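Notebook, bench 3.
Goal today: get a predicted structure for Family 1 glycosylhydrolase from Streptomyces doudnae so we can plan the truncation constructs. The sequence was checked against the plasmid map this morning, with no discrepancies at the termini. Length recorded as 421 residues. Pasting the sequence as submitted so the record is complete.
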Amino acid sequence: MTQTTRFPDGFLWGASTAGHQIEGNNVNSDWWRKEHDPAAGIQEPSLDACDSYHRWEQDMDLLAELGFTDYRFGVEWSRVEPVRGHFSRAEIAHYRRMVDGALARGLRPMVTLHHFTVPQWFEDLGGWTADGAVDLFARYVDRCAPIIADGVRHVCTINEPNMIAVMAGAAKAGDQGFPPAGLPTPDEETTRAVIAAHHAAVKTVRANHPDIQVGWTIANQVYQALPGAERTTAEYRRPREDVFIEAARGDDWIGVQSYTRTKIAPNGPVPAPADAERTLTQWEYYPAAVGHALRHTADLLGDDIPLIVTENGIATADDSRRVDYYTGALGEVAAALEDGLNIQGYLAWSALDNYEWGSFAPTFGLIAVDPETFERTAKPSAVWLGGLGRERALPRGVSRPPDRGSRPVPDPGRLPPPPLP
């Protein structure tokens, strides 16, 4: 019989999405422009994506019917403020209807105010490092006050700010791709700017809604030191991860997001073995990642700041492997809870098969989406995972399924650099 760990009271149990990846036709964003620029070399544009801008009710209906109690979704800055200083009352009302719709279905909404994309006008100013950028972001957050006014308990200011800084560093260095292992060096100016923007946003949210729990989410790469590489690993990890975790001190919670691991040798990151099982994003299959990520975050911040797994999942065309991956990951979460970590929720990535920053090929979704009709179909993994919510229990067992050897995966073409789900 499978051992289980009971959910703590109020535990968040749900799935996550990002506006640009599911809504479709986000035409005023920087990513829309990039997708249609031949020089950017993007494999395919998002176009209609999952058409969730119009079909969000179907998405929420399915999640509620499956047994989930929470839904993380994003507000697109480029829709709310398509032109600098012009705020769309219609778009603000749209996102408020989404909040109300979630509440009506028994789903607690977690609202993300920035998930990678910015308005084109903001990018044209120079982005996060432009003069006044922090104030412009805080002004946008302030205008989102009606969206999160009533019934919203959790707000995320910025998703994976460390990846924003990493991408900025890669752009400044002229890198067209990522290294075989590890990440480019983050841009220090961007790091300072996004941390300042987060702190300004936290202050703004609290000024408007003192009862809201506000935080941000960090991409955790699970850096594992090989013999003799402990110092190298700490030095490598700090600018890419730890400074962003430490910037969450004083927040109401922090989001932990992890998918795989990165091994570090004395001379730097090393690729996974050639025979390692890989996912459709070519990342090593490693469901134990989330446990390491939770424990590392707790080691840095202590017990004062609650942890929420805001993204965790696998890109695969084999849904049985998805169940295996989640079984291993949830075993890690259960073990961490039993060891006393203050974990307050688990939200899978992703609710839907969606646009993964350049390609629809990597399928992370619990729910399949027909690209022609947009029909939604819950996968067996969604039924299983939602059912755990009804049982209010996490599976507790081995952190990895038995070794099945290397498993070839189809080449999905040019994929997004890790780790941007």
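The longest strand covers residues 213-219. The chain has one domain: 3-396.
Flagging this for group meeting.
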